[in-house]
Specification:
Keywords: Membrane, Transmembrane, Transmembrane helix
Radius of gyration: 53 Å
Helix content: 25-40%
InterPro entries: ConA-like_dom_sf
Number of domains: 2
Distance between the termini: 143 Å
Number of strands: 15
Shape: elongated
Order of helices and strands: HEEEEEEEEEEEEEEEH
Length: about 350
């Protein structure tokens, strides 16, 4: 039996006690170190497993990826063929579009033709309706627009001849719905009289006027030069805002006319009119469907057998300047209701 002596351990008995004390003092640290080492081993093992699993998944997905690429490669000829078909179809598509464009032009032309027919039918419809609403229809209507020009739209044959005029926006919103007069001696309309315009016992004159000047004839019958200095029945704009009409006698009787100062609006459309009835001897002037002037003149028969001139009177320096549209003539004196009913006779819409 070997007995260790204290000297076998440095320090003898005290050395053993010191060693035990060192072991006791560092036991906690060694345990912690051992635990950390164990955890590190576990982490390494876990990462290795995860890496292995990930690689295993990647290896599993590889055939799928290769298969997908092969499908894309197989589909490529189909895609190229489809693009080629689209390219082949392109000329057909362009040709179809051109046919559609040609058809559209034909459709637009047809619609325009239908619109022109509708406008003509609209005027005829208005005229028929007006005849039902009034004592009788007009003996003449001069729309003074792009469709009729200075022609008599009733067909009674008193077509006018325009000189020095041009088309301009009208009272119904249409761009070519009126004649523009320059306010000079060479800007007017001459209208013949085949007898239909001879309204010697009663009449109504209507017109839309947009005046920009001081005075001038709107509708002026031409009288005999040896009677009343060539004056006959006339409807005029006087001053900037005045309206005037005189029923001159057939025998040269030159009566005081009926005047309505301050009723016309300058630089705006006015719907003007003049009426006379030899049975009552009453002459009246109208603006926008309202009576604005009245006078008893007692002329038994008026001077309306001659031709008519619009905007100019020979030998007179007062010329109408502005626009005129839809001149109408009737062989009786219309009532207020009838004048209102005739206002839109030349309009484009019923």
């Amino acid at each position: 039996m070997i007995v260790l002596q204290d000297r076998a351990v440095p320090g003898g008995a005290r050395g053993r006690r010191g060693l035990r004390n060192v072991i006791r003092a560092n036991r906690y640290r060694w345990c912690v170190a051992a635990g950390i080492a164990g955890l590190l081993c576990m982490v390494c093992v876990g990462l290795a497993s995860v890496t292995f699993i990930g690689k295993e998944h990647d290896q599993d997905d590889l055939p799928t990826t290769v298969a997908a690429l092969k499908r894309d490669q197989d589909d490529l000829p189909t895609t190229v063929a489809a693009l080629k078909r689209d390219q082949d179809d392109l000329p057909t598509t362009v040709a179809a579009l051109k046919r559609d464009q040609d058809d559209l032009s034909t459709t637009v032309a047809a619609l325009k033709h239908d619109q022109d027919i509708d406008k003509e039918q609209t005027f005829e419809l208005r005229l028929a309706q007006l005849r039902r609403k009034t004592t009788a229809g007009p003996v003449a209507v001069w729309p003074l627009n792009a469709k009729y020009g200075s022609s008599d739209a009733t067909g009674n044959g008193n077509d006018g001849t325009a000189t020095g005029t041009q088309l301009a926006p009208g009272p119904y919103g249409n761009s070519d719905g009126a004649f523009l007069f320059s306010g000079t001696s060479d800007s007017y309309i001459d209208i013949p009289n085949n007898g239909q315009l001879d309204v010697q016992y009663a009449y109504t004159i209507l017109a839309h006027v947009y005046h920009t000047g001081q005075a001038g004839p709107i509708f002026n019958y031409i009288g005999q030069p040896w009677l009343s200095a060539g004056w006959a029945v006339h409807l005029w704009q006087t001053a900037a805002h005045g309206l005037f009409m005189r029923p001159v006698g057939r025998d040269g009787q030159f009566v005081a006319g009926v005047s309505a100062p301050g009723v016309l609006e300058l630089n705006a459309w006015n719907y003007v009119g003049g009426t006379y009835d030899s049975n009552t001897g009453v002459a009246s002037v109208w603006n926008n469907g309202k009576l604005v002037g009245l006078k008893r003149t007692e002329v038994p028969s008026v001077a309306t057998e001659g031709a008519v001139r619009v905007a100019v009177r020979d030998g007179d320096g007062r010329y109408f300047v502005g626009r005129i549209a839809c001149i109408q003539l009737y062989n009786y004196a219309m009532t207020s209701e009838e004048i209102v009913a005739a206002r839109n006779l030349c309009g484009e819409h019923p």
